[in-house]
Design a protein that fits this description.
Helix content of chain A: 40-55%
Shape of chain A: rod-shaped
Largest sheet of chain A: 6 strands, antiparallel
Largest sheet of chain B: 5 strands, parallel
Structural class of chain B: alpha/beta
Oligomer: heterodimer
Largest interface: A-B, 24 and 23 residues
Radius of gyration of chain A: 80 Å
Radius of gyration of chain B: 14 Å
Strand content of chain A: 15-25%
Number of helices of chain A: 20
Number of strands of chain A: 22
Distance between the termini of chain B: 28 Å
Strand content of chain B: 15-25%
Order of helices and strands of chain B: EHEHEHHEHEH
Amino acid sequence: MIQSLIKSATAQAKIIFYVNLTFSFFVSIYAFNQMRKIESQIEEARIEKLKDDFGRAFENYFHPLQGIVSSFHLAHFNFKASDFRNAALSRGMFSNFEGAIGFGFIRRVPQDEIDGYIKRQAQERPQFKLNRIQDPNTSLADITAMKDLFVIELVEPLEKNREAVGLVVSDERNRREAAIEAMISGKPIVTMPIQLVQSKKIEPGFLLFLPVYETPEIPQSGAEREQQLVGWAYAPLLAKSIVKYLEAQNPSLKILDIREHDEERERQSEFFNEKDQDQKQRLGTHTIFAAGKKWVVTAAHRESDSWSSQDKSLVIFIVLSLFSALLYFYLYNFEQKNKFQSDLLLKTEQKVQEATDELKDQKAFLQKVIDNIPALVGYWDRDLKNKLANKAYFEFYNKKPEDIYGLHLSDLIGPLFIKNKIYFEKALEGELQTFERDIPTATGIKSTLATYIPDKVGHEVVGFFVLVFDVTELKALQEKEKEQQFLLYTKSRLSLLGEMAGGIAHEINNPLTIIKGKAAVMLKQLATMPDDESKHRLLTHLQSIDQTVDRISAIVKGMKSFSRDAEKDPKTIVKLKDIFSEVLNLTSEKIKEQEIRLSVEGEENCQEKINCNKVQIEQVLVNLMSNSIYEVDKLEDKWIKILIEKRQQNILIRVVDAGLGISPEAVEKLMIPFFTTKPTGHGTGLGLSICKGLVESHGGQFYYELYRGNTSFVVELPLYVGELS
Amino acid sequence: MGILEKKKFLVVDDEPLICEVLCDFLESEGGQVLSANCGQDALKILSNHSFDVLISDFRMPSGDGRSLVQNIPQEKRHGMLIYFCSGFNDLKQAEIESLGVKHLFAKPFQIQEILEKIKKDLEFATEQKTTEHHR
């Protein structure tokens, strides 16, 4: 987490943090150094003090010893024991000197005067006797060799020091040496740690010797000193009291070890040693010269409540680090806040921009959407002013949407305004309106389906949406579809018919055979009758009957063309000439009657032969002729032309009439089976569809064509290639 | 006298009036005509008589043209010209030939057409007979 914080902070904060950290580090090191210095200074001071105190520890006793010396000089070295006691008392030697078991006087007595000495002492103190010390370091020979004996003559308080009285300190090496040294040096000298006779326990102590000379002034030379020495003022001291004193003076220290170091003899006698488990914080071992001896003191700091310099500097470091951390965090926060605010501002700006862009996009998109709707999409407010128009308005009214905006409805739709008035009034009342309207546009009249959708806000209608669909194509399609469906329906009906045709055919053909046959019989009988008018008339009638039967037969055969087996109709090779003669024969009466001009072109081609069902082809042509006859009857200029054209392997028979053409839609309609434009009673003919079917079953084509501006139907048939058998 | 004179004809059609018409024309040409209205009757007649020409409708109840032709006894069959009439295209040319039928006339037929065809075929048949005799 901290790492991430650090990562995300700016360089500034980071720099400050690290700088601070480094600064803290160096500061703490500096502090540490300084503190160490001070500490060592303090230590040194302490040590100095210790040394001083150590010296003073002994020096404390110098004064009373000096007092003893002075007293002895005053008393001319004749001090009674009781006087000495009083003196000691008065000087407070009993109680004021902690650590000194007592104070006393040691006299140097020459060996040979020892008896006299004892007698003299015994005068005052009958109990006085010499107390010899057994010292492993001093042999008998040494004692015998000694010129003088050093005897403790006086010591107070007697209560504590009884054992010391009369003690021959020269018997013991340490005492002896110390005394001698004091004598020679003229200085107070202390013994090595020794076991005091006063003490009951095994505990180290010292004897402190202060030499007393015959004169109060210390003689100059060592020899003089030796000569003039009377004795020593001395004090037996407890070692532990030294320690006590030292510790009292230096409460922060703990004396661990004090040794007396005799370099000459390489002796080290420790008198105090406290095993310290905790080795830390030693003040160290220090050499102190005091009381004529070299001491080695090891002291240590007590477990102090105050911290070491290490701890202190660590604390400083921590504090400073914390401070730098705090600073960092503050800066970081500050930066973050700033960043946050500027980010926020940026983001807000961004958002505003985004929103604006989005709005723009949406607006553009909306416009695109409505422009892509294949209808007029618009909106008019209740004052009939335009508020929205899509691109389609351009196609309808040739105005761009931006030009339509704000325009009044009447200004846009012109004459349609009045026509549609009822609708938009109703729409403004809140009613949905749907209606059809044909609108004239630049590209023609468009059939439209219009919807007005009221825009209600609460209970009020504030405007209406306009949705106009161009349904022109749709309508046309619907019409076509209707027609096609009708065609399909008819076709299917016809194929059914064709199916039935087979069955009907036979049923009809028999009666037809009879009629035809009977007519033929009658014709035959007529031949035997005499030629007169009635015979001729009868002949004509019978011929009509015969022809009519043929027509019926042709129709029946024509119906069969809708069934599957039209190809089975017997075909024969026929000259066109024969077909035409029959056709003209059949139609001549009508033509004459209606005074129609008939002409034939390409007669030379009538020599051609076709393989066909003669009757069927005849019927096709008769049908075309009948249609033409009927059509031209309405016209001023009545004519029909038959053109016979040879085209490659086919023959084209074109029936043209004075009519000025039929629309493709009408032609299509004409191709509907049994379709006729003629009113009932005027003969249905085969219907062009049957003609087409018959021609196509011959492998030919049947179609309408506008020939030089006139209506024409074409029968195209393959020519017969081969011999007439 | 025409070729048809004294020739024997059997006319079969379920429509009596058609038989009548055919009879009329054939008799006026000098032929001798018998008629039947169905295949069964025709076979009965055939069992007792011989004919030069058989004209039969194709579709008839109680035995149609095909079954009639197939059931003609062999001895009667020989030398007899057979023609079919039909109101509907019932047969293919191949089958007509395999049955030994000379021609199929579509109804309604032109009587003259039939007469001419029969005359031609009879002439041809007579010639055949003559050449055979001369061998």
